[in-house]
Structures are given as structure tokens and as C-alpha cells.
Amino acid sequence: MNPSPIKTTCPYCGVGCGIEATLIDAEKHIVNIKGDAQHPANFGRLCSKGATLGDTVSLENRLLQPEINGQTTDWDSALAHVADRFSAIIAEYGPDAVGFYVSGQLLTEDYYVANKLMKGFIGSANIDTNSRLCMSSAVVGYKRAFGADAVPCSYEDLEQAELIVLVGSNAAWCHPIAFQRIRRAKESNPSLKIVVIDPRATSTCDIADLHLSIKPGMDALLFNGLLAYLAETGSLDRDFIDRHCQDFVPALAAAQACADDFDDLATACGLAAHDLAQLFAWFAKLKKVVTVYSQGINQSSSGSDKCNAIINCHLASGKIGKPGSGPFSLTGQPNAMGGREVGGLANMLAAHMDLENPLHVDRVGRFWGSDRVANRQGLKAVELFDAVADGRLKAVWIMATNPVVSMPDADKIKRALQQCPLVVVSDCIANTDTLAFAHVKLPATGWSEKDGTVTNLERRISRQRPLFAPSGQARPDWWIICQVAQRMGFAGFDYQNSAEIFREHAALSGFENDSEHGIRDFDISAFASIEQSQFDALPPIQWPVTATAMHGTARLFSDGRFYTEHGKACFIPINPRAPFHATDAEYPFTLNTGRLRDQWHTMTRTALAAKLNSHKPEPTVEIHPADALRLGFRQRGLAKLTSRWGDMLARIDITVSQQPGSLFVPMHWTGQLSSRGRVGALVNPVVDPLSGQPESKQTPVRIEAW
Ligand code: SF4
Fold it and tell me: Which residues form the signal peptide (predicted)?
């Protein structure tokens, strides 16, 4: 008889699909994977990546033993070494001389203790995450508009909408199961309109009624134009604006200032006027509209403004807090949202509180029993590695991520780590590009061994449950962090399991979170005394989970009350900005980077599945036929791409899905897999000044046959 399946969660994208894993041979790590029919994110469906998870859980390429300077060692020695070196550096140079760079692959419990150690006890906010590269602009957009990093929508809204606008999102490849929900909604309701706004004609366009192949970087201008159009055509929801919003007048004035002539607006966006008019007419006329946006919006030097330009249109038309309506950002990673909840970004404290609010710092300090809680923002990802490069940071601990591949100006990360006095890397993989620079390697448990929670892009907390015992000497990330914290002399890190950490995280989210203290009810305080058995059986549930919302909260703001101090949503005046670096005669093409259907991040897991590798077996550069003809390129030839920051080689893929003047290269290839295929080496490191998110979609490059 087969054992009962173990319910867990896919570790790849932010859709957060439920999985049922049936062990065939636990010793040999053989497991049968299928979708969990009861999980509300996917109802049994899995995409190609989730379905092949069973091929990726072998011990191939696993880091299984701690190492110091290339020599294997025992845990006690490794932990003592890390704790002693961190303590010595902090004693000599202060707490801001060290940093953590963590990951949306960590579980919420791992994130919670890493944040508690750095911000609560070391006393610096130098902890940032690779989620900075994917959704930090969306966080700024939500915080500015709603007073909290609060995603208003649920997947159900996609099924109830009359119009779905996908902006800067190839959901068909990057969030496949969410996309399949949209596809099925369209099939069962053909009157549902789908508009895709994207310079590229991606697979997402297959179901679109209208594809707007916008000029790269013009999204804020387009949504400003929409706001002006809503006002001109009497399509505003005046009652909603007056009762629930503020600062509408300056936002409208800014929008009208840059969109006073419709034909000029369409031309500036690179669009046919009748196509743009069609989108505006649908948005104005249809009552239920969801705008779905992703990295094409966020990865920009003005990404935060682009997010608020979208949100402004939803506020102005009252299309928020209602079934089938709202601005819905698609988070990239499985637990980027969990990291946001516990304050895993350098500019957040914990439980949606702020570093720069003395009341919040005092509250968290009393809760944690620490008088050295950080009270100013730390270094965001690009700044953090700049500080490693220029010697301000003497020690960096990198957890479950591969910045030598994924960061912009990636060769600079190599140089920075090369000369850093202490590089600690904890990972489940043995030979990433980043581990090559580690003085200390700490073996962490992998997906199939982890035990804790993740939160998906619709705020749904789901359990990741272990399928196997930890391999070799691998230990959970939360355990490694807590062991180091204890050896540094800090109290409050003696957890016995992840349920204890989850309980504390839930308690902090509700601590002094009431009308008397004037803060939000955006918490999961209902779990503050959750028992181990309840944690083990925890069903998927949407944040917030409070005494008045014990079964979670599907949709936010349905009562028209927002998380700002005054309870109103804020319009943000937007002055659109072009990409920071313009193309020129030397670098005439705009390089866009992104994901492939069958790969994940830097391929440390997905490359283990032969089926996934067959989709796109090597780095490619997509180029329009007119550009290819002009440059004398042939299909499948080799090209060299060069920017001001680096170069790479890629196989030429001539396709009309690309606009003339633009190139697309996937982000996944590492130096290990393809010595000249790391696109991060080319990507410019300019960031959004508010979110710190890099402009990974727009780097000027040149291309030549190789
Ligand atoms: Fe996993 Fe995302 Fe695919 Fe779902 S859509 S199976 S979460 S990769």
C-alpha cells in the first residue's frame, strides 16, 4: 500500500501551488509529485517546473558538510568560526560593517530569525534579499498608496473580472498556473476582455483580445494618459475618491500635464491611437477590472512610480476592494511575500512596521527584549554589494541565493566577494558561482527537507512540509542562524522547531496592534498561540488572519478603509521618466532580461531535470528579423553582446516577437553552465531611487556576430 501523500508547496514561483508528494523510496529520494486538488492556488494543476520536482531532489550537487577555507569541518567549529568572526568585526568596526543577503527561497521562519538577529540584536538593518530584484517597486507602490505593503486581490478576482490588463508580465511562462486560471476564465466567459501591454509578443498574448506593444519604459505615461482620460470622459468614481482617497487633484494635474493630446500620447508610447483608445474605453466602461503587473513594471529606475500610476487609475475609478477589481502585482518568488511580512527588506522593520518610526522600533525592541534594534534603513541589494566592494562591509552572509549570477553588473559582485575579508554562504547546492568565493560554506536543507511556511502572491500562507530527513549534515536555515546568534551571546534564539518561530512571528504581528496604539489590523495574530499539531495541519490561509477574520481575508479594502493613519488611500502625482541609460551610437539596442518557461532562477535545481533543459538548452538572444537582416545574422548563429558593464555570448534567435531595436536574453545561465552566458554581467546597476530595484529591463548594448 502506498503511504499517504504529504501536502506541501511548490518552491518555484509566487503562485504557490499545492503539491501532494508520495514517497516511493525515501532512502533513494524517489517521490511521486502531483498537484494538490484541494489547494486553492492550483486545484490540482502544476506547470512543467512543479510537475518535475521529483527529478530535482536527488543528492546530486548537494552541499552536505560544513567547510572552512575549503576544508570540511564539523558544525560546532563552523558555527563558532562564523560567530567569532562576526563578533570580532562588529566589535572593531561597528554593526554596520556586516550584512546578510538572503532570499525569497527561505521559509518565513528562516527569514524571521535572520531579520531578528540582524535588526534586533546586531543592531544594523543591513539585511536585504534577492526579492529586491523582483518586487520591491511593487512594495513601494502599495505602501505609498495604501499605507502598507498590502496586495488587495485574490486569484478569484481574475475569474470575476470583466477586463484583465496584464502589464509587463509574461504570466504564461512566469506564473503559469495563475495564467491558466485566466485562460479558463476567458474560455468560460468569452466576453472577458484581455489586454497585454508588453514590448514583446509573448505566449501571454495568445489569449489577448488586444496586445499593445508599448515602447520600452513608457508604462507610467500610458497610465497617466488613462487617468486623464477617465477624468475627461466622466468615468471617475467621485464618491469613492471623495470618501476614501486623498491627493487626487495633484495626481490628476500631473497626469494631464503629460497627456493633453491623445495622438501625441499614443505616438510617445509607440502605439496605434485606436488600440490605445480601445484599452481606455474598456477600462472606463467595464466595472470589474484587474490590472496584473510584474517585473516589466517593477524592474525599472522608475518602477515605484509605474506601480502608483496603475494604482491611481484603480482608485480614481473605484475599481478596488470589490470582486473582480484591483491592482494585482505578481510576486516572482515562492516566499517573497513571507519575507515582506517579517521585514526581510533593508527598509522595513518587522510585521509591516517601519525602521524610522520610533514607536515601532520601541515596540519591536520590547517584544524581542533588545535595546539595540536598528532605527534606520540598511543597505539595499545593490548598495550592499557596493559596500562589500569598497570595504565598508567586512563580512557578508549570503543565504540561499546566487548573486554572482543574478545581480546586475554581476562581475562587480565577483570582484567584491574576492576581496571581502569574510564571505559566509549557506546553501543546499554545492557548487554555485557564489560558493566559489565563500570562506565558510554551511549546508542547508533543500526544499524536500524543509519544514515551515511560505506566503504566495495572493497573501496565502501555505506549509512546506519535509518529505525526507535532512541529507548529510544539512540543517534548516533557521537553525543555522539561531546557533550563530546564540554563540554571539544573544538570548531569544533557542527555538526547538519552526512552529515556535511561526508562533512568535504571529504574536509580534499582533503585538500592541489595536486602536489604542493607532496601528493596523494587518496581521496574523490569530496564530499567536498555535499548537504544534495545528501548525502541522495548517491549511492554506490568506493573511490577515485575526480574531474577526479567523478564516483569512480574500480581498482587502472592501470597507473602503486603508492602512494609512487617516484611513484613506493616497493618489501619488506621477511625472514619467525615461529609462536612466539611453541607447546611443555605441550601444544602440535595448537589452531586456527575463525568465523562460522551464527554468527557475540560476538553474541550480531545474537544470537537474532533463525534461526542463530540453525547452531552451542554451542562452539565446531574441532579435527582430529586420535587425538580424541588417546585421547579417543567421538563425542559430552566435552573437556577442556588450554593454558598458560586461559582455556575453548567446545563440541568435530571430523572431518577430521582439521589437526592432530591442533584444531579449534569459536570466538563468550561470558561469558554471555557460562560461560566457551570464547576462547579469551586462545589466546596468542603476536602481529606482525609492525601491532600490535595479533596471534589469533596459540596458543599452551592442550586438555583433561571433
Ligand atoms: Fe510551481 Fe509556480 Fe508552476 Fe505553480 S505555477 S507549479 S508554483 S512554478
Answer: none
- DSSP assignment letter at 542: E
pLDDT, tens digit (0-9, with 9 covering 90-100), for 73-116: 999 999 999 999 999 999 999 999 999 999 989 999 999 999 99
Q: Among 15, 20, 170, 462, which residue has the most ligand 1 atoms within 8 Å of its CB, making it the best to mutate?
A: 15
Taking the centre of ligand 1 as the mean of its atom positions, its distance from the CA of residue 42, in whole angstroms, is: 9
Euclidean distance between CA atoms 108 and 277, whole angstroms: 44
Q: Domain with 646 in it: what CATH number?
A: 2.40.40.20
pLDDT in tens, 342-375: 988 999 999 999 999 999 999 999 999 999 999 9
Amino acid at 296: G
Q: State the pLDDT at residue 518.
A: 66
Q: Do 348 and 457 belong together in one domain?
A: yes
- Mean pLDDT over 40-59 rounds to 94
Whole-angstrom distance, CA of residue 211 vs CA of residue 215: 12
- When divided into structural domains, the chain yields a total of 4
**For residue 9, which atom of ligand 1 is closest to its CA?**
7
Q: Which of 330, 345, 378 is the last residue of a domain?
A: 330
330, 359, 383 — which closes off a domain? 330
Cβ atoms of 66 and 440 within 8 Å: the answer is: yes
CA distances, 291 to each of 195, 211, 298, 329 (Å): 9, 14, 14, 8
**Among 49-63, 95-109, 685-699, which stretch is predicted with the lowest mean pLDDT?**
49-63
Q: Decide if the complex's ipTM is over 0.95.
A: yes
Please check whether residues 184 and 300 belong to one and the same domain.
yes
Helix axes 273-285, 219-232, angle to 10 degrees: 60
Cβ of 46 less than 6 Å from ligand 1? yes
Please check whether residue 437 is in contact with residue 423, taking contact to mean a CB–CB distance below 8 angstroms: yes
Regarding pTM above 0.90, the answer is yes
Q: Which atom of ligand 1 is nearest to the CA of 176?
A: 5
Task: Write out the residue range of the structural domain in which residue 14 sits.
Answer: 6-56
Whether residue 222 is found in the same domain as residue 371: no
Q: Residue 670: is its pLDDT beyond 90?
A: no
Q: Which three cell numbers stand for residue 146?
A: 495604501
